[in-house]
Structure formats: structure tokens, C-alpha cells
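C-alpha cells in:
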């Protein structure tokens, strides 16, 4: 609760963080309750209503405020449902990557030695490969799917957290209060848990906030390429892929999911930048 109150105070101090956090809360609630708030079944097809423009354009109808796609499916419903996948992938991959990276990075920075050298060399090796290509290669072997996308992107992102955690732990363990805790007989687990980990949390929170938007973009790229979530599930990347062939005649098929993805990514970036200024 103390951490939550500190975060709330930080959010209220900066308008960028306040507005971004408020917008993201609304998007998250919309994604959670999407099955109950979507105006229509996102997979319901009606060829008689295919490629209808948004309601404010001639030929559009308020039954489909953002228009329909090539199969007559309601675009607004599909955009709302697509938020579920993007946010789920963004949040869970960050949890996976941060859990692995922060843990091994913290231990490497605190204990040093051969463990530190092995962890950092593994991180350097993985960082030498573009993570999107590494992800595509792994998914090509194990197949597409939501769980595979989450696990692969999460594992691919751990080196960034490991490097930040290691560097911060190296700095914090030189502080006097850490030396005093060790001199008083504190165990390594106690010193790490009570004195080191809490003091490197800010840097990891900032990185995680910025990484959410990157993971959302990665999921959209994979879905656009057909290597992400199955096409039967509405995703923003998949909608961009389906709409690209109609870009000149039915621009709304790509613009609407593109605007949704861009807006959420910008909001996360504003939130991360604001937290960086306030907590960094």
C-alpha cells in the first residue's frame, strides 16, 4: 500500500503522467469488460454490410460507428476486442521479462564473480540478435499462439532488465547502509530484500512502463506477419494486415486499429517519460 500511495503521488504531480494514466485505465477497463460493452459480435459477418464507411461519411450508419470490414464485421467491436490482446501481451511479457531479468541481474550485481560474468555474457549474446527476428525464429519452430507469443517476447526481453538491475545493484551495494546491514550480521537474502531491491525498483518500474509499448508493437508486428495470435482472434496487428489491401478504397480498415495502437503506445511512452523525470 505504501508503494501504491507513492506511485499515486507521483502520478498526480505531473499532468503528462496524470492524463496518460487516466487514459490507460479507461482503455484497460474497456479491454477487461470488452465482451459486455462491444456493440456487436466482433466476428459476426454480413456481406450485405461489407466495407461500410464510418458513420460520419456518406454511406455510413451509426449501427457501425467506425464502419465495417471486408466481411461486414463491426470495426468498433473488433478494435475494442483487439485491445484485450495488445494489453494482455504487453503486460504479461513485461512481467515475464522483468521477473527473469531483474532477478538474475540483481543477483549478478550483488554477488559478482563467475555468475555475473556468465549472466552478462548471455545477455550480450542475446542482445546481439534483433529480438523480432529471434522471436520469429522461435515461433516458426513452436508455432503461433497467444501463449507462445507471450513466453517468447518475455524471454527475449530479459537482458534489458538484467543490465539495469545489475548496474543499480552494483551502485546500491556500495552504500553505507548496506555495509552496515552486512556488518550487523544480516544475511544476503535479508540485505537484498530489505535494502538493495527496494532501492533499484524505480529504475525497473520506468523501464517496464516503456517496455510495455515496445511489446505491444512487437505483438502487432507478429500478428501483421501472421506469426502471432491466430486470425480468428481480433488483434490490432491482424486488422492492419487484413486492411492493407483496401488501403485506398477503405482506409478506415487500417486507420482505426492503427490510431488505437498508436494512441496507447504514446500514452505508455508519456507515462514512462513522466515517471523517469519524477523517479529517475
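Residues out:
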Amino acid at each position: 500500500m505504501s508503494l501504491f500511495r507513492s506511485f499515486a503521488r507521483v502520478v498526480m504531480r505531473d499532468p503528462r503522467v496524470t492524463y496518460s494514466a487516466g487514459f490507460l485505465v479507461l482503455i484497460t477497463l474497456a479491454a477487461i469488460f470488452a465482451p459486455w460493452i462491444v456493440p456487436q459480435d466482433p466476428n459476426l459477418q454480413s456481406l450485405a454490410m461489407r466495407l461500410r464507411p464510418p458513420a460520419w461519411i456518406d454511406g455510413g450508419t451509426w449501427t457501425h460507428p467506425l464502419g465495417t470490414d471486408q466481411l461486414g464485421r463491426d470495426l468498433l467491436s473488433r478494435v475494442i476486442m483487439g485491445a484485450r490482446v495488445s494489453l494482455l501481451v504487453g503486460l504479461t511479457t513485461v512481467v515475464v521479462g522483468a521477473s527473469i531479468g531483474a532477478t538474475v541481474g540483481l543477483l549478478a550485481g550483488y554477488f559478482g564473480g563467475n555468475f555475473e560474468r556468465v549472466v552478462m555474457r548471455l545477455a550480450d549474446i542475446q542482445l546481439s540478435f534483433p529480438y523480432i527476428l529471434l522471436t520469429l525464429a522461435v515461433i516458426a519452430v513452436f508455432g503461433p499462439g497467444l501463449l507462445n507469443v507471450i513466453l517468447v517476447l518475455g524471454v527475449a526481453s530479459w537482458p534489458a532488465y538484467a543490465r539495469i538491475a545489475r548496474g543499480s545493484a552494483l551502485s546500491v551495494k556500495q552504500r553505507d547502509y548496506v555495509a552496515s546491514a552486512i556488518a550487523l550480521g544480516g544475511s544476503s537474502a535479508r540485505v537484498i530484500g530489505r535494502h538493495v531491491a527496494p532501492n533499484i525498483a524505480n529504475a525497473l518500474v520506468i523501464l517496464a512502463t516503456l517496455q510495455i509499448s515496445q511489446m505491444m508493437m512487437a505483438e502487432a508486428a507478429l500478428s501483421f506477419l501472421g506469426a502471432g495470435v491466430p486470425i480468428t482472434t481480433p488483434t490490432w496487428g491482424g486488422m492492419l494486415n487484413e486492411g492493407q489491401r483496401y488501403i485506398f478504397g477503405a482506409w478506415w480498415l487500417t486507420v482505426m486499429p492503427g490510431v488505437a495502437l498508436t494512441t496507447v503506445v504514446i500514452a505508455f511512452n508519456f507515462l514512462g517519460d513522466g515517471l523517469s523525470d519524477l523517479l529517475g
